[in-house]
């Protein structure tokens, strides 16, 4: 049998884990012996973790672009009988996608509290910076309706990867914070 929480303002019974009273809407504090329920997105956005995520994504991309990208392009485009850049671009996109997911996981794991917004915001900001740099260097363009649609799809995909990495990182954080019995 589960015992509900009693509202201190109006005395109404509420289901376990309720954050607010069903009757009067006042906040309900859990009993001292009960763990508070972690709610995704609760609390303020930690802009420091957003900045750390953006910086880490951009740093890793710079390293990949200076070291790995030339090797992939040389092997897949210049040293083949049928030089097509699309295979190499696909491989580089997959590497970039992995970077967004892993950085999201790192931010989700080490940021305090239960929030997965920071990795998603970091992914969108880093994607916007990358798009701006691409347009500024004339290596890419988002002009026209199809370019805008592709840009929005890429932003959504990268935000989803950052968010997904954040969820995995939060699960790792939960596991690290859960006390373990000796010998288990």
What would you say this structure looks like, in words?
The structure is a single chain. With 184 residues, this protein is mainly alpha-helical. The chain folds into two domains: 1-37, no CATH class; 47-177, no CATH class. Helix content is 61%, strand content 2%. It has helices spanning 47-78, 85-110, 117-136, 144-177, and strands at 5-6, 13-14. Strands 1-2 form a two-stranded antiparallel ribbon. β1 and β2 (13-14) form a beta hairpin. α1 runs antiparallel to α2 (85-110). The radius of gyration is 23 Å and the shape is elongated. The protein starts with a strand and ends in a 7-residue tail after the last helix. The model has no long low-confidence stretch (mean pLDDT 80).
Descriptive key words:
mainly alpha; 184 residues; two-stranded antiparallel ribbon
Radius of gyration (Å): 23 Å
**SS-derived structural category:** mainly alpha
Assembly state here? single chain
- What overall geometry do the principal axes of the alpha carbons give? elongated
Low-pLDDT parts are none
The major β-sheet equals: 2 strands, antiparallel
Termini gap: 29 Å
Number of domains: 2
Count all strands and give the number. Answer: 2
The helical percent reads 55-70%
Order of helices and strands: EEHHHH
